[in-house]
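Retry 2 of 3 after timeout on previous attempt. Resubmitting C-alpha cells to design endpoint.
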C-alpha cells in the first residue's frame, strides 16, 4: 500500500452522538502559514498501516514541500444523508476505550472508520499501554499481530521522539503540552459489499507542542484517509488504508492565538468520538 502524507485526537474514549461536523479549528495557530510536509516513504514501508506516525515524521522534518490540492470539485453538492443522523442507535460498547459494536451496514462502516481515525491520530499512540489497546481494537487480528512490534519500535525510537520535541518516554518538556488530535469532518462510502467496505474519512489534524517557548507549535493540516474495512468477530476492523493530502480549505485571516491561549485550549477542550 502507499501513503503520501499523514495526520495527527486527544485522549481516546467515550461515545459521541455524531461522527462529523465539528466546530472549525483555527488554521495554522502560530504565525505564518505552514506548508504541508511530505512523509518519508521508507518509514511508511516499515510501519505499514500506522496513521499518526507519518504526520509526526513530516512535522519533525518539515521538508517545506507544498502539495497541490485536488482542484476537481463536484458539480452538485453531496447528498445530506452522507452525514445526517439516521435514527439508528449509537454504539454503547467500548474496546480499549474505543467505541465498538458498529452496525453491519454502510452507516456502521462510516462510524467505525471515523472513530478509528480519531484513535490512531491520538496522543495515545505514544503511550505503550494505550498504543497496544488501540492497535488491538481497530485492526483485524492478523494485521494487529503483524504490526504491533514495528509500531512499538518506532514510537519508542529516541531519535524520532527527539525530533518531535519529546523525551525518551514520549512526554513533552515541562511547561509544554503535546497535542495530537484528529478531527473528522466527513466520511464517504467508496465501496460496500456485506463483510467488506471501503470508507474515506476527510479530516483536519492538530499536531505539535503547546506552551510558551515551544519550538514545534501546534499546526493544522488536512488529509483524506481511505480505510479498507473487514467484518471480523461481529465488528468492523481495519485491514489496510491509503492516504492523500487535502482537500485543504483556504485559511481565514485570523490572528494566531498566543502560546498561553493555545495551551489552555488544548488542556480544557477534550476531543470527540463519532459513533452515532
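Retry 2 succeeded. Sequence:
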Amino acid at each position: 500500500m502507499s501513503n503520501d502524507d499523514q495526520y495527527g485526537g486527544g485522549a481516546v474514549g467515550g461515545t459521541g452522538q455524531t461522527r462529523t461536523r465539528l466546530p472549525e479549528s483555527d488554521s495554522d495557530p502560530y504565525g505564518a502559514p505552514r506548508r504541508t510536509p511530505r512523509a518519508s516513504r521508507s518509514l511508511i514501508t516499515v510501519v505499514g498501516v500506522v496513521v499518526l506516525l507519518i504526520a509526526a515524521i513530516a512535522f519533525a522534518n518539515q521538508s517545506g514541500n507544498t502539495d497541490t490540492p485536488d482542484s476537481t470539485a463536484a458539480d452538485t453538492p453531496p447528498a445530506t444523508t452522507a452525514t445526517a443522523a439516521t435514527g439508528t442507535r449509537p454504539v454503547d460498547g467500548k474496546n480499549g476505550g474505543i467505541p465498538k459494536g458498529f452496525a453491519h451496514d454502510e452507516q456502521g462502516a462510516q462510524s467505525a472508520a471515523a472513530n478509528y481515525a480519531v484513535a490512531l491520530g491520538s496522543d495515545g499512540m505514544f503511550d505503550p499501554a494505550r498504543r497496544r489497546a488501540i492497535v488491538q481494537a481497530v485492526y483485524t487480528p492478523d494485521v494487529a499481530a503483524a504490526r504491533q512490534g514495528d509500531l512499538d519500535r518506532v514510537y519508542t525510537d529516541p531519535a524520532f521522539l527527539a525530533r518531535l520535541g519529546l523525551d525518551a518516554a514520549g512526554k513533552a518538556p515541562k511547561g509544554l503540552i503535546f497535542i495530537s488530535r484528529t478531527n473528522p469532518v466527513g466520511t464517504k462510502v467508496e465501496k460496500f459489499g456485506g463483510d467488506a467496505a471501503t470508507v474515506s474519512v476527510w479530516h483536519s489534524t492538530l499536531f505539535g507542542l503547546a506552551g510558551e517557548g515551544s519550538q514545534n507549535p501546534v499546526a493544522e493540516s488536512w488529509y483524506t484517509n481511505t480505510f479498507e474495512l473487514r467484518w471480523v468477530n461481529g465488528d468492523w476492523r481495519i485491514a489496510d488504508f491509503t492516504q492523500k493530502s487535502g482537500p485543504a480549505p483556504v485559511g481565514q485571516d485570523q490572528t494566531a492565538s498566543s502560546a498561553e491561549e493555545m495551551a489552555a485550549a488544548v488542556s480544557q477542550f477534550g476531543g470527540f468520538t463519532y459513533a452515532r
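Attempt log closed. Helices lie at 41-47, 52-61, 106-120, 128-138, 141-155, 158-163, 259-268.
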